[in-house]
Fold:
Amino acid sequence: MVEQMEKREIRISVRTLVEFLLRSGDLKGGSSTWRDKEAMQKGSRIHRKIQKKMGSGYRAEVSLKHRMEREEYVLVLEGRADGVQTDEEGILIDEIKGVYADVRELQEPYPVHLAQAKCYGAIYLLQHSESKIRIQMTYCQMETEEIRRFVQLYQREELEQWFEELLDSYHCWALLQVFSRKERNASMQALEFPFPYRAGQQQLVGDIYRTILRKKQLFVQAPTGVGKTMSAVYPAVRALGEGLGERIFYLTAKTITRTVAEEAFSILKTRGLKIRNITLTAKEKLCVCEEVECDPEVCPRAKGHYDRVNEALYRMLTEQDRYDRETILNYSEQFSVCPHELQLDLTLFMDAVICDYNYAFDPTVRLKRFFSEGSTAGENIFLIDEAHNLVERGREMFSASLVKEEVLAVKRRVKGLFPKVEKALERVNRILLAYKRQCDGTTELEHIGDLILAAMNLAGVMDEMMGEVKDGLLRKELLEFYFSLHSFLGIADLLDDRYVIYGGYLTGGDFMIRLFCVNPAGNLQKCMDTCRSTILFSATLLPVRYYQKMLSGREDDYAVYIPSPFPMENRLLTIGTDVSSRYTRRTPEEFRRIASYIEKTFRARMGNYLVFFPSYAMLEAVKEAAQELLQDVLDSGALALYCQHSSMTEQEREEFLQAFSEEKDQGCLGFCVMGGIFGEGIDLTGESLIGVIVVGPGIPQIGEERELLKKYYDREGSNGYDIAYRFPGINKVLQAAGRVIRTQEDKGVILLLDDRFRNTDTRSLFPAEWWDCSVSTLGNIENRLLEFWKKV
Structure:
């Protein structure tokens, strides 16, 4: 017999369990579309409203837990019944679902919904002495709030037998997790940090481990090149082995940083670690169809997908130890299932998931099996890489718009076909027209309750319509608007004092109502609260208080600053004070002066340099001047000039970076845009890059939302200009500067070209190790560069 203390505890939510075991039939529009009748976010409001009306014998949001002990493991099944009512008839379990569909057309509960409620009923009976229990499914139409209830009486023996059979069917899946966990933990016994510790790295590893141990959140400001990825992955892996978490989610903003995370796990595997990890790929990149359309009438894999996917999943887990893109595509082809849905199912059995921020935070695509409200899928660990990106991404993920012209376009498409939908669209359009007449340019609005109510009604009638639309092109057009409408309604349910509602105009003149999330911290924190611990790390989390305010809803977060481990004498950091990127000084003469800095830098020592500009327009203007000044070395082949452009393909990006990585007797100048694809995440060491020139303090262009941000934070007593402009700008500067000096041996120069870098407000945002930043002019920069290169 296995000792109880050695048994693995497997925790799973009731909802996840029943959805996983009882799914069947076709895949229709993916895992979260109009066919998923439950409106999650709006449903929470409906839940509260219904619960308040149920009387004194009704207890709302009752937590229920069942522990089932087997020889090899303990299964912990958790959930929260919407209501438990005690009356003269006995006990009633109430499960509430808010839907957009017409509840009058429901003939019976959805099987998965009923199974969820039956689980709650079985758990309740196992903990109490009642001989029977009533199960009630309460469906509420979101717009009309009309309610339809289904009640069924179950005897104890009947329900307990059903429940036992359900749990028995999960046994083989539980064993997979038990044996995988046992193998993983055994492989950790002798696992050491795979490299000699760099200065500050051991401290960082300890700080991260202690944060996970204490169930806290940690902000890490650590310079580029200190080894942040391995410093985060290693202690998180050790924490898993000690039972301090269920799985790791390594969250990134860009593909290149996901690759670095994959390499970290691969390195640990070469040291003997047995761990299951997967990198999630976007649906568009995995789909085998010409167009992504999860419709059983179009995609043969969608037909009967749920009838086959569990077999594909089980075979893959028992036959493979690699879960890369190629393996997923092979098994999805073998079993004729959707590769995207297969990879999502795999996450339930992984120790580590590497993915984009969206999968954890975006309310439209997040992995609800882990991150829905009230999720009990386990104590996960978040490792958030390049966390400075999460501010803007968070604002975008939790904002939404409704565009008047899109409403009209859909109205034209359904005219004469679906009168109810046409009428609902006309109502929404009239309300939008009234707001348009109020708005002179971008105008803040206090309330839009009439629009939200009309949009809810529109969503309801569109639910009914979508089941009838068979035409492929029409269906595609309507689905795009339908998803946009539901996104708007979902965000509307999140509205609070961290939002600004405004009416405004898109570039083409279309009018929209926008729900703009000015501070995403509250929404992000709800997601992070589903986890045990969150580590947010970046080379540019300065000032840290700003990022804590934007990314966290807690007051007790930890923060750590790791100094640069690299010798300061290996780099020259200087400000060019006699040039500027201000709009008022963007003249041919100023462009030539900036180009002169670039020329003198290259001639002081030929090699590879990156130059970062605030815009493509300025990049092109300075490029022309630089080509004139460097014509001789360009003609001789001693210098090659490469430029980023706005529509670069993946192959073009790789070719750009490859030019810097190759060993050759030719220097490279790369002209890039700050905050772009080459501004962070690229790793060019040694002679691959010996200098970075940053033109301007990176201040974002003045725009409508930037100005709304500024006004909002000015009103609340903060410095609105800093939050809307200065902090995002300096972040791009620090990221660009971090491309050079990434190892102990690297030597290079960093030129900051703009007189505004001398300002106290700007210099106060520099990292501590930039204390030696000097000032230069065109008159002395050449000598300063020559002296530096001679010295090193």
